[in-house]
Amino acid sequence: MNSDEQLGTLKESLLGLDMESAVEAARSLADGGGQAAVQDAVSAVSEALGVVGKRFQDGEWFLTELVYAGEIAKEVMGLLTPLLEAGAAEAAGTVVVGTVAGDLHDLGKNIFVSYARGAGFKVVDLGVDVPVDRFVDAARESSALALGMSCLLTSTEGEIGKVIAELERQGLRESVKVIVGGAALTEQFARHVGADAFAPDAITGLDTVKKWSAS
Ligand code: B12
Predict the structure, then answer these.
(1) Domains of the chain
(2) Which residues, 6+ apart, have CB-to-CB distance to 136 below 8 Å?
């Protein structure tokens, strides 16, 4: 099988809820190619998850399927994302990252974390369901260059404004840039709550943080 076929198999297996076949395809892609192959595989999983979300939204799939597709994606991403980090030195500055309180989605955040580590950033990954104070404390304690928040639920997007307000209250807002990403957000929303940038994907996010690090 060539790598295009393997990418096809990876997507189809995820959408067919076949864990074994998805893991096998991801392994072959990871073994067979370099960074570009791994990036393509990560994109394929992200695309497939877009379809999963649509099926769930349209009532074609139920929570059980959503959860299982999420588990497959987690397993596959667990194989792929560490390969994006290979050989990086931590010199470009510190970035604090987490998913906002009430939100447990972490696949997209983890991709950004891996890309940022791969580009030489030290990343303090706070995980999911992160309360306001933990974001702010971690930014202060690590003298972070940037704070990244992930948010996939419209019900939790209000958390972002709370974190920014607390950074301001503690006099940290000038020294920490704020970048946000995740399916619930838009550029307009990010601007409205006072974030410095919105990242529609992890690569754009990394480019933005690199610019901040260089200036
Ligand atoms: C997989 C999934 C799950 C999995 C999550 C597994 C996991 N470990 O993350 C599980 C099953 C747990 C889950 C649960 C739920 N989910 Co869900 N889920 C999804 C799904 C299908 C895919 C999300 C995903 O991982 N996408 C792939 C990644 C790679 O994309 P991404 O997150 O957008 O990240 C990219 C960019 O956005 C960006 N990015 C993201 N974060 C960040 C952060 C920074 C700093 C930067 C720079 C960039 C960046 O870079 C990433 C890579 O390019 C989405 C559908 C969708 N369209 O998003 C629904 C979706 C987000 N879920 C939804 C819902 C409703 C739920 C539940 C409430 C369902 C329920 N009734 O219980 C629960 C909520 C649980 C909770 N409290 O969080 C809704 C949200 C609707 C809304 N507008 O609020 C969606 C949109 C589905 C839908 N269409 O209805 N879900």
Answers:
(1) 3-84 (1.10.1240.10), 94-214 (3.40.50.280)
(2) 163, 166, 167, 170, 172
